[in-house]
Amino acid sequence: MKNLAVLLIVFLLIQNLIAQKQDYIWMFGKEYLGVQGLENWGSTNFDFNYDPVRIYEDPNREWDMDGANTSICDKDGNLLAYSNGQVIIHASNIAIADTINYGSDIPDPDKGCIEWEYNNYGDEKMAIPGGLLGSQNVSIIPVGNEFYTIYTTYDYCEAMTYRMAYTKFQINDINPTGKVLKKDIIILRDTLLGEFTAIRHGNGRDWWVVTFSDKFDMMYTFLVDKNGVQIENTYPTGLKTNIGSGGQISFSPDGRHLAFYTASMLFSQTGGGIAIADFDRCGGSISNLRSKILSQPTLGFGTAFSSDSRFLYACNGEQIFQYDMSATNTLQSEKKVAEYDGFEYFFQEFPDFIGYPVNFCLMKLGPDGRIYIFPNSASTRMLSVIEHPTAAGAACNVKQHSISMPTAFARTVPSMPEYRLGPLDGSPCDTLGIDNHPIAKYRYEPDTIDHFRIRFTDLSYFRPERWSWDFGDGSPKENIRHPYHSYATAGTYNVCLTVSNENSSNTSCRTITIGTSSSDDVAVTPADITLFPNPVQDYLLVTLGEYIPEHGQIMIYDISGRPVHTQRIYYGQNNVDMTHLATGMYVWKVMDGKVEIRTGKVVKVD
């Protein structure tokens, strides 16, 4: 019986280890109560179960995810729950816990404080929680079949974050829409930064949560396991910043490094900096902390690592910097890879036509290996992307304001740990019998000039050591991690990547269709095309997947059949400017040369 119990525990741990798609749904948007009437307001989801990522409006969600923002899926990428730091919501959009994280102080008009300490759509007498206003203030951490929603609490009257707490819930066959097990359990009372992040423990089962004091002079680590959440370590950092600082905290995907931006809320030219430390996943401790002052001309304090942990990126609102983690002196390897180009987004329904900067504030590495960059604007619909973070220097390809979201969002970033990290093999805490069995994954995109030349980006996880590519055209296999391959002709190819280490190997195959503009081509049927929003007010996001066109175009016609707009489009996301068109119904066609791929209708509104 004892051996059976041990085997059951190991089986559950392995099942937990292969839960690699828990961060596949990202959620954004201003959507609560009366705001649904505005065209640009609503809820947007990123679904990484598709490649390219599918970005769409979710009309069924009416919970605001405009500041604090976290979600969690099952191992297959199906949404389970999400939270804005004030409410925990089931995937069915029904609240699991509708009143978490209430502050201890009711707003006191006598103190000149008449607002609640979170985003409140009600008033000083009746709270309608719209979520915490900060970023990285909430995260859902899975432990077995239970989930810890961890959050910090901001005291608006005293202008400080004063505690960290958690609510534990479960979703199972008995409680399919969720059940709260514990609520508002205090972890720590102190003057805190507010932002925090988490990383898998070296045993492959538990978690470390890391945060700082609000001056970054003290670091706290917490252990999250089946017994709850408890403070484990407190470390003086030696850093000195202003009271009321902020900053994004990030772990490298391999768990070896911790990076954070120390940002002053005064936004002086020398008010910020970047700090890097080595992290011990067994003991939850840091070492080799080093830092560098960066200018901070505006609100911006983002950090993110490339998927292979080779490069660290940091942004200060106006610039993006790259640091080589393999360099002898990482901070001296700094390269500026982007300068904000001044682009502003304008909401057409606002009579004052205020421009909202689409600059660089917060960053998040996506499951597709891209880094998504969120601006500091109170409202906007656009964000920027680092297309190839694993490439050095300008080759990382920062595409500014390249994605137009279906609905508006504010300064936010999805807060979730790196789920695709296993145990620290061979370490003192590698005691649970879990091994890293690599899982193969990749993405691809064509060259914009030569569509036969394909770039492949490895996204495999659980410590792959060797790579083998079969491009499906009879050419020799390649063993490099991120290859390019040129095909001779159009057609359909079965491309397989095999990854391996000392434990096992795994293969992932995908069908890649390369089209041609000849009129007799019939290979366009697998093309996956989405257009959002519809109705559209200004920018239409057109996503083309599962098909690489030779000369892709979108053609828009009015109801009389007259062409009013033609634009080149490529594999992936494409922004189509509709601002010059009159209101009314239009017909769109996506073409590859003379071949019609898809057609449909779109409505233009004021």
Structural write-up:
- This protein is an all-beta fold and 606 residues long.
- Among the domains are: 241-411, no CATH class; 442-514, Immunoglobulin-like (Sandwich), CATH 2.60.40; 528-604, Immunoglobulin-like (Sandwich).
- It has 1 helix and 41 strands.
- The strands form 11 sheets. Strands 8-9-10-11-12-13-14 form a 7-stranded antiparallel sheet, with no helix packed on it. Strands 4-5-6-7 form a 4-stranded antiparallel sheet, with no helix packed on it.
- A hairpin with a 3-residue loop joins strand 20 and strand 21 (319-324).
- The chain is globular.
- Mean pLDDT is 89; it is low at 1-16.
How would you state the average pLDDT, rounded? 89
> Into which percent range does the helicity of residues fall?
under 10%
Helix/strand class: mainly beta
Distance between the termini: 69 Å
E-strand count: 41
Q: What count of helical segments does DSSP give?
A: 1
Question: How does the overall form come out from the CA principal axes?
Answer: globular
Proportion of beta-strand residues: over 45%
